[in-house]
């Protein structure tokens, strides 16, 4: 199943070549996907916030809409919505609701004050139907603007809004998964797909020569500011694993006392494991008959051949140390992925669960770089040399988070099709486990 | 407006005289009231839990049903539901759902393990419609049992279940009020009633002689076990205020620096006030134009004549000390109320907001002992002499909470009609403010 | 060993009959005892604060001195120290150090701001020798005043200061015990006394008739304000245990799963036990060879015949429920103790560890009402009818704590001789365990 | 004042050229310096721990001794102290005290369990004199071993122990500073040095060309494992400030609302500033007459010309953004420092307070790279390519902390002479402020 068809004959990320019609079509498709992701959910499901890191599904619906209203229709200057930079993009711009900016601003200080993140789950109002009306109205207003000529800045902001909404599509899924898991009834989001019984290929390593390389986005096509500018890095020779670590391999680590051996862990990692009582990845439950894994299709017996997912950086790092290997740096990952940028084939966007690696592909090189599980790198999230965030509120998109988090690469089974690329930098705190985060090993060549 | 009509010609609390038909009618009425209280709420409104002390409206609907299923239809022995005391009361008893006991058990350890209280707001499932089906099925099963002959124990458990559900009706309202207030949009639960502009009568005190008195419930009629047994107490002479403290009087305390003067406060109270940043009762908001009060009808300007509500014991105690008076003991309150047990007239059950005291009534004695606001006493909640909790799980109803809480008397504007009486003991932790809790002064005579 | 000899021929608590000389002698004796209690400690031992409830020994030395300086030499009005009530008692009063009031005021808001309680352990300065100089100077100034004629108010304040210092003598010992226990080396405060191997007498109950009684202090002699006024109470018939519960009896409760059976506990108590991981009283440690008890003489094997000590109210209450009995109310305790006020014989003041009950004495009635272990009552600490705290800062001594704590009666092995009496009310939060707090059972007669 | 004289004619870090005598002399000198740093302190001063990050001075004395006992005299294998790798280095090795390993192990899991870090301040025992006896005994045993022939491994471990002790000399000073500041009396550690009134030179930038460089330690001489291996990095052109930011410059940031403008801050930084109430660097206090700075010489008026110290990474980063510059990466810093490695001249080791930059020196290039204040870099602390920690417990020295911390470079006024070098990597969590941490700006060239 693919929820978003690729635009025929063109990459979705080439904004330069997008005509107004193309953008309008993509806008409709992205917005529709968000709503289709909510189809299996009740209004009640969409209210809750199961932890401060997560947001209610209803909030995702509203926030992504607020983003277009604020930054595309308006001026990005908040409730005032009008005076900066020659006025809003939409003629006659008025806010849908005077308080929605307060409720649905995520973290843009330049736009104005906002509702406390940890209290998003208390927003029973606006009701889901009111949020849907908000979406419909903003969609119509955006469509009206797209029917006219857009300047480059307008196109760029719309493109950013689409990519932003795609990021929230993935968060919506992972947040829903966490919320459903928080319910003792362990309800499923969707019926299970047909089982694909297959064995993962043996683990190998592919050597890379190192030397002076370029990483980062150089265009054409859309990229987030944190992927820029493209720049040179020196790499020592290294080798990258041919596929992610499987559940079965991870069980061997656990059975070897992995969670009780401090010498395998970063100091902060072992402290986090003890403080949180970690004894297995998130969503694993020990039953008399063996490990059960909670998935978006409900609980099912652990498939040892699938990639391990929902591990923190700390667990990924400890596992790697246990094997004698290490995690790759983000630059190593990107250089290795350069010859294999087939994200379109691997980010499936509909199964919502990582697949067993494909033996055939892995024989020819690395498998599953894109899709299935995000791959923790050992690289702290930091600005690239000469990085400059955008001016104004949109400059807060990425730059202010470049501290205390780690980079993940490659997308997951919950990433919308066409959203990732070789230069894409995702980032989470090292203790985060609710994303589809897995392990790709590296070692010295 | 009165939501529950009094049964004609009889007090609702006289179980001895209740025939099966009478009980069946009361069962239907109480259950219907709970549902009518939810009528203004959306399914989304009914999911959230705005603080650990509160519960979602949906949870109240389910828990009160679980109470009847477990203790009236079943054996009170939990999921096993059958083997104790000669089997369940309902022939062929089976659980509606095997996991609902886990989800909707509040605190009965003897029944079995339970979902964490602070996580009740994560229960998007069962959906509201499923809870309604649960209620309907249990209602039908209870009705079927009520159509036959009930023994005294069966009648007593049903009576307890009805009183239990009435307590949750009040909690449902106060929990909804807190949840709506937690939303920056400050939505209303119900449209405002017609304003009754009147002035509170001057505050006076009525003297009582003291001496040897009896307090506690001696029947006939229903009472909770914590009201028993009736017993003697020696009281010194005292005087009780003719009405509760008003908002206007409380504002004077605030304007005299009440919240910043430690000498007026209990040590723990001043610490709580500082830790929580209290500067006014809960639901008061300072606006440039003056104080606004959030009510179940939405925000409105503070009416200085109304009884002050939503204060903690600490604030009540500090206010009393500021006036040179004190709070009454629960025994003083009960002895004073003995001659004035007209709860039926004062607990209105539909306005959901305390009324201004009635000048005419207060001239003849004390006003508003029942209804409007619960009145904090200085009495720590403790067992009466020779108190014995019931055997089995129902013994957990009251007894295990007799520590660290304080007694409140008299019911409030959110108490269902017919639920309170002169011997009724409500209890909350001293820092609790989300109930309609107010201040009745006392002093030495 | 007795550290404070009783004044020959007179009770220490009869202030009316005290001449100046007598007071001066008692002042010297009490002050000297405090210092002798510190003799086994190094300066380093006297700095630390092992938990917020405790205070460093050095702080106790300084605070008790500050009390005399502030309330006896000065006016009780803080740093100003002069203008109220016609000036300070000491002619030419000046503060020893301008900042000591800030450092060593415990909780008197009327005197002025103060150092945070939980940070007392950071006060490496003033050095111990500076505190000793402070004590010596204040002692000399008090002695000079005592050499003249004192009015009744002066005598009363001095008497209060002596009783206050005695309370801190006990706290000093219990705080030191906790601090030493917090050290993995488990050092001893003093060498062990000679072992007294004997068996506790069998547990019995002595019946009391109930009826109208008087409790509270009526003079002559010193009492704290919280013991006043004497007043009537009505008691139902009851029976009081002939001795405190022993370690052996408590072990039986533990072995019967006492710490894992919620039905035996107050709700808050079971929550506290789980939150704190309680599985035994404080200072018990499980070793392969059996239970070890940490005492002020270091660790030693648990003596099953000794009274159990260092239990919280919650544990005392759960233990009582397990036996089918209950804790006494404070009024029951006081009425029962009325015929047995021999505190002078039981509070030993030098052994610092509870003794095994004496068989001979217990045959004739109750044993160990005074000394050995404080006995938890089920009574929340509350003001007596018509209680009025003193005016000014000294009114903060007791009154503002009459909330959330429970009354203990009878003194302990760490209480100075002559300090307790039948009307004495000690009070601690229900989870407190670092005092020598034990269990006296009661039941209905 | 210089507390450690440089060994005549040789660098202290050239282990290859050290004879046994040289090592023995250096051992004596380093050990003596630690003790001389404690000379101004009382035993009481040396017990306290003012926050979990800090340690008592007494603990530093013991821990550094434990390090030599465990890793140099013993086998590094903990209490067993004997069986690994062919036995301990010291013939007839026995532990000074069987429990000291538990008390004074800082974080070496491979050595065994340990006392909780946050409870180090409770260790009144062993007494200071016992710790001194421990030091003396271990010193004598080490000296005896040094009198014989040491193999290379023995020399390396001793060298590590000396460098380890030097790190604790700095921590001892910064921990004492924090402890003294925690006392409302604000006592001084040492009398103030003569004031050196001078003005800081104007701020300039020195450009560097970028390109392929080598960083990291390549010998000869001692280095920590985290400085290795030396490796190539590609740098873009950059410029480095000629001196650290001064207090006066930082005041301008504060007066421009720096602490209240989220757009200047990393997201986590602004959250930390709000959560901790930061409005100025640590040790700054606002008085009516202006800012006062707490120093190891007590409080004194803020000197606007001195380098700002005691800022977190977050404040350093926000300050840099406010100026339009940024912090350097650690590689930029090291490359820039390469031509200016005169650490011996700048780390003064006795003044314990950062000095005003020297105008003369700064004209010729950058000033104060070494000494005065540690300089925050924007580089997260991470392993260098091909980094391998040592085998065994000593491998825990640095490697397991390579997460969540940031690198600081250059040493401070509290760093012992001869301890830093151009490749030296210090690291702290980004919110840490109790070190002498300051700001060196960088920008694109």
Architecture overview:
4 copies of one chain form a homotetramer. With 445 residues, chain A is an alpha+beta fold. Chain A folds into 2 domains: 17-181, Four Helix Bundle (Hemerythrin (Met), subunit A) (Up-down Bundle), CATH 1.20.120; 205-444, Alpha-Beta Complex (paralog of FGE (formylglycine-generating enzyme)). The first copy, chain A, has 11 helices and 12 strands. The first copy, chain A, has helices at residues 20-38, 57-73, 100-104, 128-146, 152-181, 247-255, 267-276, 313-323, 330-337, 343-346, 359-364; strands at residues 205-208, 211-215, 231-235, 238-241, 284-287, 290-295, 298-301, 374-380, 406-409, 426-428, 437-438, 442-444. A 4-stranded mixed sheet of chain A has the order 10-9-8-11. In chain A, strands 1-4-12 form a 3-stranded antiparallel sheet, with helices on one face. In chain A, strand 5 (284-287) and strand 6 form a beta hairpin. In chain A, helix 2 runs parallel beside helix 4 (128-146), helix 2 (57-73) runs antiparallel to helix 5 (152-181) and helix 7 (267-276) crosses helix 8. Chain A is globular. Chains in contact: A-B, A-D, B-C, C-D. At the A-D interface, strand 3, helix 7, helix 8 and strand 8 of A face strand 3, helix 7, helix 8 and strand 8 of D.
What would you say about this model in short?
The structure is a homotetramer of 445-residue chains. Chain A has helices at 20-38, 57-73, 100-104, 128-146, 152-181, 247-255, 267-276, 313-323, 330-337, 343-346, 359-364, and strands spanning 205-208, 211-215, 231-235, 238-241, 284-287, 290-295, 298-301, 374-380, 406-409, 426-428, 437-438, 442-444.
